[in-house]
Design goal:
With 373 residues, the protein is an alpha/beta fold. It has helices at 30-43, 68-81, 101-110, 124-130, 136-148, 167-178, 197-203, 212-228, 247-253, 280-288, 301-312, 321-327, 332-343, 364-371; strands at 2-8, 52-60, 83-94, 114-120, 154-160, 184-189, 232-235, 238-240, 257-261, 266-268, 272-276, 294-298, 319-320, 347-350, 353-356. It is globular and about 55 Å long. The protein starts with a strand and ends with a helix.
Length: 373
C-alpha cells in the first residue's frame, strides 16, 4: 500500500495556533504552484515505482481553495504517471466556508470520495479566538451540503484544551458534532507551537494555557463520548465508525511508503526520509530551473526503531516486540522500562504486542521516549 500527499500552502487567514507551512498572499502565483506540484509528481514518479497508489491526500494549508480545474490538473497528472487503484481513498481537507453545492458536485466529479473538514469548534467565541474564517452556521450547514453531493465519508476536526474551555463546553461540542452524522473524528489538544500568534500571547501573558490536568480530563471525556456513540478509538487523536478508518493516515502509522509533494511535504520509502523546502517561491523556482530544493536522510536502525515505537504505540494495532527485535536488539534496560510502564498501568503486552491502556494514551509520547534507543 502506497500513498501520495499533496501539500497546498494556501490559506485565507492565519489561525492563532497553526505552525504548518502556508501563505495568505498566494493569488498572484497559484497557477505556478500547481504547475510546480505537477512537475514534482512527474520528476519523482520513480519513488513509488511499480507500486499501486491506494490513497491520495490533499492537505495544507487549505486545499479547498483550489478550483475544480486546478484539482483536475493535479489528479490527472497522478493518474497518468502512477498506477492508481480503482477504489483509492481520495481525501480533500476543506474549511466549512469553502463548501457549497457547486464545489461539492465538482469534487464528486473528480473522484474525491472523502472530506476532512476543519470545523474546530461550534462556539463563535472560540472560532474568533482561533481566527478561523468560518462561522458556526457554516459549520452546521457544510456537512449536509457535502452529503447531498454524494460524499459519505466525512471526517471533522475538533480542538480541545482551550484556556477557557470547561468540561461542560467540551462535552457539548462533542455531542453537537455527533448530531451531524459524520463517520470520523479527529480531535487535537491545543498545543503552543513556536512562532505562532498563540505562542506570542503566552509569552506576553495575555493568556494562561490550560493545565495538563484539564487537557487530560477533556481527553477522557472525548474517549467516553465517542466510544459510547459507537466510534472506535484507533489512534490517539482519531475515532472512526466501522469501515471508516482513514486509510491514508493509517499508512503513515504502519510505515507504508508515500510520496509527499508541495512545499514542506515529506516523503518516505522505507530507507530514506526527505522533505521539501518550506518556501513557496523557492519551491516554484526550483522546478522551473529543474533543480528542486529538498533534503533527505538515511534512517539508521535507531531511527527506524524509535519511529516504529512512536507511531505504532499511538494506534489500536500496537507495536510487535518481534518486529522491534528485528530492527534493533531489545536490551535488558528496554525490558526493565517496559515492566515499569506495565506496573504503572500505562502499557500492556498481549501475544508479544505492546498496547497503550486508556490511561496510557494520555502519555503516549512520553511512554515512547522512555523506550527509545
Amino acid at each position: 500500500m502506497s500513498g501520495i500527499y499533496i501539500h497546498i500552502p494556501f490559506c485565507k487567514k492565519a489561525c492563532t495556533y497553526c505552525d504548518f507551512h502556508f501563505s495568505t498572499t498566494f493569488e498572484k502565483y497559484r497557477s505556478e504552484m500547481v504547475t510546480a506540484i505537477c512537475s514534482e509528481l512527474i520528476m519523482r514518479k520513480e519513488t513509488l515505482q511499480d507500486q499501486i497508489i491506494e490513497t491520495i491526500y490533499f492537505g495544507g494549508g487549505t486545499p479547498s481553495l483550489l478550483t475544480e480545474e486546478e484539482l483536475n490538473i493535479i489528479l490527472s497528472t497522478i493518474r497518468e504517471k502512477f498506477e492508481v487503484s480503482v477504489d483509492a481513498e481520495i481525501t480533500l481537507e476543506a474549511n466549512p466556508d469553502d463548501i457549497d453545492v457547486s464545489k461539492g458536485e465538482a469534487w464528486g466529479r473528480l473522484g474525491i470520495n472523502r472530506l476532512s473538514i476543519g470545523l474546530q469548534s461550534f462556539h463563535s467565541e472560540s472560532l474568533q479566538w482561533m481566527n478561523r474564517a468560518h462561522t458556526v452556521e457554516q459549520s452546521l450547514a457544510c456537512i449536509s451540503i457535502a452529503q447531498a453531493a454524494g460524499i459519505n465519508n466525512i471526517s471533522i476536526d475538533l480542538i480541545y484544551g482551550l484556556p477557557s474551555m470547561s468540561d461542560e463546553v467540551w462535552r457539548e461540542e462533542i455531542r453537537t458534532a455527533l448530531q451531524l452524522g459524520v463517520q470520523h473524528f479527529s480531535a487535537y489538544c491545543l498545543t503552543i507551537e513556536p512562532n505562532t500568534v498563540l505562542s506570542s500571547w503566552v509569552k506576553k501573558e495575555k493568556i494562561q494555557p490550560a493545565t495538563n490536568e484539564l487537557q487530560n480530563q477533556h481527553f477522557t471525556i472525548l474517549q467516553e463520548e465517542l466510544t459510547n456513540a459507537g466510534f472506535e478509538h484507533y489512534e490517539i487523536s482519531n475515532f472512526a465508525l466501522p469501515s471508516f478508518v482513514s486509510k491514508h493516515n493509517s499508512s503513515y502509522w504502519k510505515g507504508a511508503h508515500y510520496l509527499g509533494v508541495g512545499p514542506s511535504a515529506h516523503s518516505y520509502d522505507g530507507k530514506y526520509r526527505s522533505w521539501n523546502i518550506a518556501n513557496n517561491q523557492r519551491y516554484i523556482k526550483g522546478f522551473e530551473e529543474n533543480i528542486p530544493a529538498y533534503e533527505f536522510e538515511l534512517l539508521t536502525k535507531e531511527n527506524r526503531f524509535n519511529e516504529a515505537l512512536l507511531t505504532g504505540l499511538r494506534t489500536k494495532w500496537g507495536v510487535s516486540l518481534v518486529e522491534l527485535e528485528a530492527i534493533f536488539p531489545l536490551t535488558p534496560l528496554f525490558y526493565k522500562q517496559l515492566e515499569e510502564l506495565k506496573e504503572q498501568g500505562w502499557l500492556e503486552v498481549r501475544d508479544e504486542v505492546m498496547y497503550l491502556t486508556n490511561e496510557g494514551k494520555s502519555w503516549a509520547d512520553k511512554i515512547a521516549q522512555d523506550l527509545f534507543v
